[in-house]
Amino acid sequence: MSHAKSTFCPGCGQPMTLRALHQALKKQDLESKAVLGLDIGCSLLAWDFLPINTFQTHHGRVVATMNGFKRAKKDSISIAYAGDGGAYAIGLQSLLWAAMRDEPITVIVSNNVVYAMTGGQSAPTTMIGQKTSTNLDPVKQEPMRGPELIKQLNPHAYVARTSMTDMKELNHHMEQAIATQQAGHFSLVEVLSFCPTNWKVAGPDLKAYVENMKKIFPVGVCS
Ligand SMILES: Cc1ncc(C[n+]2csc(CCOP(=O)(O)OP(=O)(O)O)c2C)c(N)n1
Ligand code: SF4
Ligand SMILES: [Mg+2]
Hints:
By secondary structure, this protein is α/β, with parallel strands linked by helices. It has one domain (14-221): Thiamin diphosphate (ThDP)-binding fold, Pyr/PP domains (Rossmann fold), CATH 3.40.50. Helix content is 37%, strand content 18%. It is built from eight helices and nine strands. It has helices at 14-27, 62-72, 84-90, 92-100, 146-153, 167-182, 196-199, 204-216; strands at residues 34-38, 53-56, 77-83, 106-111, 114-115, 121-122, 158-163, 187-192, 220-221. The strands form two sheets. The protein has a seven-stranded mixed beta sheet with strand order 2-1-3-4-8-7-9, sandwiched between helices. A two-stranded antiparallel ribbon has the order 5-6. The radius of gyration is 16 Å and the shape is globular.
Protein backbone atom coordinates (compact mmCIF):
# COMPACT_ATOMS: atom_id res chain seq x y z
CA MET A 1 0.00 0.00 0.00
CA SER A 2 1.67 3.25 -1.08
CA HIS A 3 0.90 6.60 -2.65
CA ALA A 4 3.17 7.90 -5.40
CA LYS A 5 3.30 10.56 -8.10
CA SER A 6 1.31 9.96 -11.29
CA THR A 7 3.14 8.32 -14.18
CA PHE A 8 0.19 8.86 -16.57
CA CYS A 9 0.83 11.24 -19.50
CA PRO A 10 -0.02 14.91 -18.85
CA GLY A 11 -3.73 15.47 -19.58
CA CYS A 12 -4.63 11.76 -19.29
CA GLY A 13 -8.13 11.12 -17.96
CA GLN A 14 -7.29 8.04 -15.89
CA PRO A 15 -6.01 9.85 -12.76
CA MET A 16 -9.37 11.65 -12.47
CA THR A 17 -11.27 8.37 -12.66
CA LEU A 18 -9.04 6.87 -9.98
CA ARG A 19 -9.45 9.92 -7.74
CA ALA A 20 -13.24 9.68 -8.06
CA LEU A 21 -13.04 6.01 -7.06
CA HIS A 22 -10.84 6.86 -4.10
CA GLN A 23 -13.21 9.61 -2.95
CA ALA A 24 -16.16 7.22 -3.06
CA LEU A 25 -14.25 4.66 -0.96
CA LYS A 26 -13.01 7.28 1.47
CA LYS A 27 -16.48 8.73 1.97
CA GLN A 28 -17.67 5.37 3.29
CA ASP A 29 -14.44 4.57 5.14
CA LEU A 30 -13.84 1.59 2.87
CA GLU A 31 -10.20 2.22 1.89
CA SER A 32 -8.81 -0.61 4.02
CA LYS A 33 -11.35 -3.13 2.67
CA ALA A 34 -10.85 -2.18 -0.98
CA VAL A 35 -8.60 -4.03 -3.41
CA LEU A 36 -8.00 -2.55 -6.84
CA GLY A 37 -7.23 -5.10 -9.55
CA LEU A 38 -5.40 -3.71 -12.58
CA ASP A 39 -5.46 -5.04 -16.12
CA ILE A 40 -2.59 -4.63 -18.59
CA GLY A 41 -2.83 -1.37 -20.52
CA CYS A 42 -2.44 2.11 -19.10
CA SER A 43 -4.50 0.98 -16.09
CA LEU A 44 -1.32 -0.67 -14.79
CA LEU A 45 0.14 2.80 -14.21
CA ALA A 46 -2.27 2.96 -11.26
CA TRP A 47 -0.37 0.30 -9.30
CA ASP A 48 0.98 2.81 -6.76
CA PHE A 49 -1.27 5.77 -7.48
CA LEU A 50 -3.87 5.36 -4.70
CA PRO A 51 -3.28 4.56 -1.02
CA ILE A 52 -5.17 1.27 -1.32
CA ASN A 53 -4.05 -2.29 -1.98
CA THR A 54 -3.63 -3.23 -5.63
CA PHE A 55 -3.39 -6.48 -7.54
CA GLN A 56 -1.69 -6.66 -10.97
CA THR A 57 -3.25 -9.14 -13.40
CA HIS A 58 -2.63 -10.25 -17.00
CA HIS A 59 -4.20 -8.50 -19.97
CA GLY A 60 -7.96 -9.20 -20.06
CA ARG A 61 -7.91 -11.21 -16.83
CA VAL A 62 -8.70 -8.58 -14.23
CA VAL A 63 -12.43 -9.38 -13.93
CA ALA A 64 -11.82 -13.11 -13.45
CA THR A 65 -9.10 -12.40 -10.89
CA MET A 66 -11.13 -9.94 -8.85
CA ASN A 67 -14.09 -12.28 -9.07
CA GLY A 68 -11.97 -14.99 -7.45
CA PHE A 69 -10.61 -12.55 -4.89
CA LYS A 70 -14.12 -11.55 -3.82
CA ARG A 71 -15.21 -15.18 -3.46
CA ALA A 72 -12.21 -15.84 -1.23
CA LYS A 73 -12.62 -12.66 0.82
CA LYS A 74 -16.29 -11.86 0.93
CA ASP A 75 -16.02 -8.77 3.12
CA SER A 76 -13.64 -7.04 0.68
CA ILE A 77 -14.59 -4.38 -1.85
CA SER A 78 -13.27 -5.93 -5.03
CA ILE A 79 -12.71 -3.56 -7.96
CA ALA A 80 -11.52 -4.50 -11.45
CA TYR A 81 -10.04 -1.61 -13.44
CA ALA A 82 -9.48 -2.12 -17.18
CA GLY A 83 -9.26 -0.32 -20.49
CA ASP A 84 -11.81 -0.73 -23.27
CA GLY A 85 -9.47 -3.22 -24.98
CA GLY A 86 -8.95 -5.29 -21.84
CA ALA A 87 -12.64 -5.31 -20.94
CA TYR A 88 -14.36 -5.60 -24.32
CA ALA A 89 -11.85 -7.53 -26.47
CA ILE A 90 -9.50 -10.00 -24.76
CA GLY A 91 -11.42 -9.98 -21.45
CA LEU A 92 -14.96 -9.95 -22.81
CA GLN A 93 -15.81 -13.56 -22.01
CA SER A 94 -14.99 -13.31 -18.31
CA LEU A 95 -16.68 -9.91 -18.07
CA LEU A 96 -19.94 -11.18 -19.58
CA TRP A 97 -20.06 -14.28 -17.41
CA ALA A 98 -19.29 -12.37 -14.22
CA ALA A 99 -22.14 -9.99 -15.10
CA MET A 100 -24.52 -12.85 -15.95
CA ARG A 101 -23.77 -14.62 -12.67
CA ASP A 102 -24.31 -11.32 -10.85
CA GLU A 103 -20.97 -11.59 -9.09
CA PRO A 104 -20.74 -8.88 -6.40
CA ILE A 105 -17.75 -7.01 -7.83
CA THR A 106 -17.30 -3.56 -9.38
CA VAL A 107 -15.78 -3.15 -12.84
CA ILE A 108 -14.51 0.22 -14.00
CA VAL A 109 -13.72 0.57 -17.70
CA SER A 110 -11.66 3.47 -18.96
CA ASN A 111 -12.93 3.90 -22.52
CA ASN A 112 -10.45 5.93 -24.58
CA VAL A 113 -11.53 4.29 -27.89
CA VAL A 114 -8.04 2.89 -28.61
CA TYR A 115 -5.40 0.50 -27.33
CA ALA A 116 -3.46 3.33 -25.73
CA MET A 117 -0.49 1.67 -24.07
CA THR A 118 0.62 -0.11 -27.24
CA GLY A 119 0.39 2.92 -29.56
CA GLY A 120 -3.20 3.82 -30.37
CA GLN A 121 -4.38 0.80 -32.35
CA SER A 122 -8.10 0.29 -33.09
CA ALA A 123 -10.14 -1.21 -30.26
CA PRO A 124 -13.69 -2.65 -30.19
CA THR A 125 -14.83 0.85 -29.20
CA THR A 126 -13.17 2.73 -32.04
CA MET A 127 -15.77 4.99 -33.60
CA ILE A 128 -17.05 5.12 -37.17
CA GLY A 129 -14.87 7.58 -39.08
CA GLN A 130 -12.04 7.49 -36.54
CA LYS A 131 -8.45 7.12 -37.77
CA THR A 132 -6.02 5.16 -35.61
CA SER A 133 -2.48 3.83 -35.98
CA THR A 134 -3.93 0.64 -37.52
CA ASN A 135 -6.84 2.26 -39.42
CA LEU A 136 -5.47 4.96 -41.66
CA ASP A 137 -8.69 4.50 -43.61
CA PRO A 138 -11.44 5.55 -41.18
CA VAL A 139 -13.23 2.75 -39.33
CA LYS A 140 -16.56 1.71 -40.90
CA GLN A 141 -18.08 -0.62 -38.30
CA GLU A 142 -20.26 0.27 -35.32
CA PRO A 143 -18.37 0.38 -32.02
CA MET A 144 -19.04 -1.98 -29.15
CA ARG A 145 -21.27 -0.53 -26.45
CA GLY A 146 -20.33 -2.57 -23.40
CA PRO A 147 -22.67 -1.19 -20.72
CA GLU A 148 -25.77 -1.61 -22.91
CA LEU A 149 -24.83 -5.23 -23.62
CA ILE A 150 -24.21 -6.03 -19.96
CA LYS A 151 -27.46 -4.48 -18.79
CA GLN A 152 -29.34 -6.83 -21.13
CA LEU A 153 -27.65 -9.80 -19.46
CA ASN A 154 -28.25 -8.75 -15.86
CA PRO A 155 -31.20 -6.57 -14.87
CA HIS A 156 -30.01 -6.46 -11.20
CA ALA A 157 -26.65 -4.91 -12.07
CA TYR A 158 -25.84 -1.23 -11.67
CA VAL A 159 -24.48 -0.27 -15.09
CA ALA A 160 -23.65 3.28 -16.11
CA ARG A 161 -21.55 5.32 -18.51
CA THR A 162 -20.14 8.70 -17.64
CA SER A 163 -17.26 10.95 -18.72
CA MET A 164 -14.26 12.86 -17.43
CA THR A 165 -16.03 16.04 -18.30
CA ASP A 166 -18.80 15.44 -15.71
CA MET A 167 -17.05 14.99 -12.38
CA LYS A 168 -20.24 15.21 -10.32
CA GLU A 169 -21.80 12.32 -12.24
CA LEU A 170 -18.53 10.38 -12.16
CA ASN A 171 -18.45 10.62 -8.34
CA HIS A 172 -22.13 9.66 -8.10
CA HIS A 173 -21.75 6.54 -10.29
CA MET A 174 -18.68 5.40 -8.35
CA GLU A 175 -20.64 5.61 -5.09
CA GLN A 176 -23.62 3.78 -6.55
CA ALA A 177 -21.43 1.04 -8.00
CA ILE A 178 -19.77 0.38 -4.65
CA ALA A 179 -23.12 0.46 -2.84
CA THR A 180 -24.42 -2.11 -5.36
CA GLN A 181 -21.48 -4.42 -4.63
CA GLN A 182 -22.22 -4.08 -0.90
CA ALA A 183 -25.83 -5.02 -1.62
CA GLY A 184 -24.56 -8.22 -3.29
CA HIS A 185 -24.82 -7.37 -7.00
CA PHE A 186 -22.58 -6.74 -10.02
CA SER A 187 -21.75 -3.18 -11.05
CA LEU A 188 -19.92 -1.59 -13.96
CA VAL A 189 -19.08 2.04 -14.70
CA GLU A 190 -17.62 2.96 -18.09
CA VAL A 191 -15.79 6.29 -18.13
CA LEU A 192 -15.18 8.13 -21.41
CA SER A 193 -11.58 9.14 -20.80
CA PHE A 194 -9.00 11.45 -22.40
CA CYS A 195 -5.98 10.02 -24.20
CA PRO A 196 -4.18 13.12 -25.54
CA THR A 197 -1.09 11.10 -26.48
CA ASN A 198 -2.80 8.78 -28.94
CA TRP A 199 -5.60 11.08 -30.08
CA LYS A 200 -2.97 13.77 -30.75
CA VAL A 201 -5.42 16.27 -29.34
CA ALA A 202 -4.68 18.82 -26.60
CA GLY A 203 -6.19 21.63 -24.54
CA PRO A 204 -9.85 22.57 -25.03
CA ASP A 205 -10.10 20.20 -28.02
CA LEU A 206 -9.99 17.28 -25.57
CA LYS A 207 -13.32 18.30 -24.11
CA ALA A 208 -14.81 18.67 -27.60
CA TYR A 209 -13.52 15.19 -28.49
CA VAL A 210 -15.29 13.67 -25.49
CA GLU A 211 -18.48 15.63 -26.21
CA ASN A 212 -18.45 13.98 -29.63
CA MET A 213 -17.88 10.56 -28.02
CA LYS A 214 -20.98 11.14 -25.89
CA LYS A 215 -23.12 11.27 -29.05
CA ILE A 216 -22.00 7.72 -29.84
CA PHE A 217 -21.76 6.44 -26.26
CA PRO A 218 -24.73 7.89 -24.34
CA VAL A 219 -24.02 8.73 -20.71
CA GLY A 220 -26.24 7.90 -17.74
CA VAL A 221 -27.54 4.81 -15.98
CA CYS A 222 -28.38 1.96 -18.41
CA SER A 223 -31.92 0.71 -17.99
C1 LIG B 1 -2.22 -11.48 -23.86
C2 LIG B 1 -1.72 -10.13 -24.31
N1 LIG B 1 -2.01 -9.68 -25.54
C3 LIG B 1 -1.61 -8.46 -25.93
C4 LIG B 1 -0.84 -7.69 -25.08
C5 LIG B 1 -0.36 -6.35 -25.55
N2 LIG B 1 -1.10 -5.25 -24.96
C6 LIG B 1 -0.67 -4.61 -23.86
S1 LIG B 1 -1.64 -3.31 -23.43
C7 LIG B 1 -2.67 -3.61 -24.77
C8 LIG B 1 -3.83 -2.73 -25.10
C9 LIG B 1 -4.46 -2.06 -23.94
O1 LIG B 1 -5.59 -1.32 -24.37
P1 LIG B 1 -6.75 -1.00 -23.38
O2 LIG B 1 -7.14 -2.23 -22.65
O3 LIG B 1 -7.83 -0.26 -24.10
O4 LIG B 1 -6.04 -0.05 -22.30
P2 LIG B 1 -5.45 1.45 -22.49
O5 LIG B 1 -3.99 1.28 -22.63
O6 LIG B 1 -6.13 2.04 -23.69
O7 LIG B 1 -5.86 2.16 -21.23
C10 LIG B 1 -2.23 -4.71 -25.50
C11 LIG B 1 -2.89 -5.22 -26.74
C12 LIG B 1 -0.55 -8.18 -23.79
N3 LIG B 1 0.11 -7.46 -22.88
N4 LIG B 1 -1.01 -9.40 -23.42
S1 SF4 C 1 -1.18 6.79 -23.46
FE1 SF4 C 1 -3.21 7.76 -23.21
S2 SF4 C 1 -4.32 6.51 -21.70
FE2 SF4 C 1 -2.12 5.99 -21.57
S3 SF4 C 1 -1.29 7.30 -19.91
FE3 SF4 C 1 -0.95 8.37 -21.86
S4 SF4 C 1 -2.76 9.69 -22.14
FE4 SF4 C 1 -3.28 8.16 -20.56
MG1 LIG D 1 -8.13 1.84 -24.31
